[in-house]
């Protein structure tokens, strides 16, 4: 079969994920399984989410479900939310509504980078490499700091070349749960300014912030958009609402971008989203967006699940990174082989995500979106496998 080079490259980049899915499928359907792999809901949806959708379901005009680009009420509500939450004076016109964070990330890549451009991505990190390969761009890995998984600004500086067009920062970070401090982001901004001047071409920063509102223990948050003018921000409501199947997100332009450059970016957002295949959220989710700005999963309950799981696994001898944000728990697989570790757990009806998905075969990730009962049922298997692998 004559496939495109980009299809082959994207398929190869995402192979660890597809291999894992196939291995789960081979296990067959088991009614007693405890699925700790992805950030999916295991309880009924938030009532406020259902209310917001229901309130907008009944058509109020003939064009209620007509083609929709970015809708002004959604943009205005998000603009007000960014001012209140982050102190960023993002104008409504600088917000492009997208199909979740994936849609916003894909839009950001194509907005400022070309085929053959290099984009520096974190490791461990999420699906950036396959998305870049599908766009004929080149992912360049910059590892996070060993052990702490903090942002390694020196590693990013070493990864930059004359072909670098963008650097991706994900905070709170999936899978590690780390939240990067303002001082480190200021250091990164200085590196990007210097490298842009040295290579004679602007290097952009994409701040991937879908977990921004999910933080523990009063941990603060600084958006890179407040530290480096040439920043694009992507966000998804699927995390804070725990409804990843309802695709709603946005890409925002930093208000620090000079006005003339922001005007140029604004002018191309709509045609680019059209050219990418009508990359806007469904009408119903955009109508619901203003009401959803203030809706959140129960962070106190999520904190209890984090603390209970961290305590139990630490007592069992696991090495863990205690998350400051997100709803994941990142640890070192006993024996150092996360695939063997995940397989041993799967035989006992507990599914976790091996670190091969993130380029770290020695680590694993647990999703804390499982119910407390599911986590309690998983702990004996985790203790048993941890003691034997």
TrEMBL record:
Family note: Belongs to the class-I pyridoxal-phosphate-dependent aminotransferase family.
EC number, UniProt record: 2.6.1.-
Protein name as annotated: Aminotransferase
Pfam family, one: Aminotran_1_2
Record flagged with keyword Transcription: no
Regions crossing the membrane: none
Keywords from the UniProt entry: Aminotransferase, Transferase
First-tier enzyme category under EC: transferase
Keyword Iron-sulfur attributed: no
InterPro entries: Aminotransferase_I/II_large, NHTrfase_class1_PyrdxlP-BS, PyrdxlP-dep_Trfase, PyrdxlP-dep_Trfase_major, PyrdxlP-dep_Trfase_small
């Amino acid at each position: 079969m004559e496939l495109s080079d980009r299809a082959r490259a994207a398929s190869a980049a995402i192979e660890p994920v597809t291999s894992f899915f196939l291995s789960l499928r081979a296990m067959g359907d088991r009614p007693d399984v405890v699925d700790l792999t992805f950030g999916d809901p295991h309880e009924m949806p938030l009532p406020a989410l259902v209310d917001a959708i229901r309130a907008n379901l009944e058509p109020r005009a003939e064009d209620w479900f007509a083609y929709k680009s970015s809708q002004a009420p959604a943009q205005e509500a998000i603009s007000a939310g960014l001012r209140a939450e982050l102190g960023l004076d993002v104008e409504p016109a600088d917000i492009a509504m997208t199909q979740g964070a994936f849609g916003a990330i894909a839009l950001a890549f194509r907005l400022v980078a070309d085929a053959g451009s290099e984009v520096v991505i974190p490791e461990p990190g999420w699906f950036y490499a396959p998305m870049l390969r599908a766009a004929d761009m080149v992912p360049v890995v910059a590892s996070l700091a060993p052990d702490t998984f903090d942002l390694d600004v020196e590693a990013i500086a070493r990864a930059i070349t004359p072909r670098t067009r963008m650097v991706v920062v994900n905070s709170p970070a999936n899978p590690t749960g780390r939240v990067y401090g303002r001082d480190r982001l200021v250091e990164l901004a200085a590196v990007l300014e210097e490298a842009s001047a040295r290579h004679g071409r602007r290097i952009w920063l994409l701040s991937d912030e879908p977990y921004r509102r999910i933080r523990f223990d009063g941990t603060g948050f600084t958006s890179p958009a407040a530290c480096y003018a040439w920043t694009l921000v992507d966000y998804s409501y699927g995390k804070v609402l725990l409804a990843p199947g309802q695709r709603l997100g946005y890409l925002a332009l930093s208000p620090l971008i000079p006005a003339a450059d922001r005007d140029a970016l604004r002018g191309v957002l709509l045609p680019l989203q059209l050219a990418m295949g009508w990359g806007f959220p469904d009408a119903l989710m955009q109508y619901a967006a203003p009401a959803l700005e203030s809706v959140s999963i129960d962070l106190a309950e999520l904190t209890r699940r984090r603390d209970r799981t961290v305590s139990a696994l630490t007592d069992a001898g696991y090495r863990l990174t205690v998350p400051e944000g997100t709803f994941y728990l990142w640890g070192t697989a006993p024996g150092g082989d996360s695939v063997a570790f995940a397989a041993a757990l799967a035989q006992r009806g507990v599914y976790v995500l091996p670190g091969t998905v993130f380029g770290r075969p020695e680590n694993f990730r647990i999703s804390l979106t499982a119910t407390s009962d599911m986590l309690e049922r998983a702990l004996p298997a985790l203790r048993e496998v941890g003691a034997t692998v």
